[in-house]
Amino acid sequence: MSYQQQLERIKNDTGFIAALDQSGGSTPKALRMYGVSESDYDNDDEMFAQVHEMRSRIMTCKCFSSDRVLGAILFEDTMDREVNGKATAAYLWEDKNIVPFLKVDKGLAEQMDGVQVMLPIPGLDALLDKAKNSPVFGTKMRSVIHSASADGIEKVVQQQFDVAKQIISKGFMPIVEPEVNIESTEKSACEMLLKAEILRNLERLEGDQQVMLKLTLPEEAGFYKDLIDHPQVLKVVALSGGYSRDEACDRLAQNPGMIASFSRAFTEGLSKQQSDEEFANTIDASIDKIYSASKV
């Protein structure tokens, strides 16, 4: 029953999705931005404990609530831990009415043909079976596009949709994330090729199969409207991709129908050294700005 309730919530309610899914490679940077240096932990276990403490502080904050936050994307390690004495995904859904998603990719391959496809995900079925024991609604997986290579972009999108079909078959909603590097000198051309390739793959989905799309904010306002309106797309969400919160929100507001799924832009300004009141005020201001841009 919770899947259908979660589906209706993502489809119909107003808000955004918080990306709290930094994993092995990106965790040290996320912690540095939070005021925790490498000297504050000695190994991966201690590092992940530090980042879980940060995420727990966000999730238990009173302002991190369902009236503005629709969902949250978790890393596997976060799913395996607890918040307020309850499994993280269960805490989000049962206590906060926030829909949990799970990052399932294992990182990126080396760049080839102007793109980075995902590394193989050998234990995906087992990971999804584990997620079935918690109220996880969907998954997220990321590839990166650096240049306007038709062959490379075709490979990225094909791989994303192949894995998405596997995820759908296990009863989850996949977020397909073919990120376009915001530093690319061919960003607009990448977006043209990407949209065409996504549309082709959407047409190959069967019956009522749906995906969500997580896309870099486009150079042309409203560029992804035909993806937003596509019957095979539940929702199009935007990644911040290295833009500051202000710029990401300004760009998002120019793209009606897209909602935020920000990571760095969401946690910008948070610090371990802040008092609980300072922390709450900072996260509340971030949530408010991102929510307002997502409502357009």
Globular, elongated, flat, extended or rod-shaped: what is the shape?
A: globular
The CATH homologous superfamily is called: Aldolase class I
Number of helical segments with 4 or more residues: 12
Counting helices, strands and paired strands, the structural category is: alpha/beta
Q: What's the architecture, going by CATH?
A: Alpha-Beta Barrel
Q: How many structural domains?
A: 1
Question: Into which percent range does the helicity of residues fall?
Answer: 40-55%
What do these coordinates show?
The two termini are about 30 Å apart. Helix 10 (about 245-255) packs parallel to helix 12. Strands 1, 2, 5, 6, 7, 8, 9, 10 and 11 form a 9-stranded mixed β-sheet that branches. The chain has a two-stranded antiparallel sheet with strand order 3-4. Helix 9 (about 225-230) links the parallel strand 9 and strand 10. The chain has a single domain, classed as TIM Barrel. It is about 45% helix and about 20% strand. It contains 12 helices and 11 strands. With about 300 residues, the chain is of the alpha/beta class. It has helices at about 1-10, 25-35, 45-60, 75-80, 90-95, 125-130, 150-170, 185-205, 225-230, 245-255, 265, 275-295; strands spanning about 15-20, 70-75, 80-85, 85, 100-105, 115, 140-145, 175-180, 210-215, 235-240, 260.
Question: What's the quick description here?
Answer:
The protein has 296 residues and is of the alpha/beta class. The chain contains twelve helices and eleven strands.
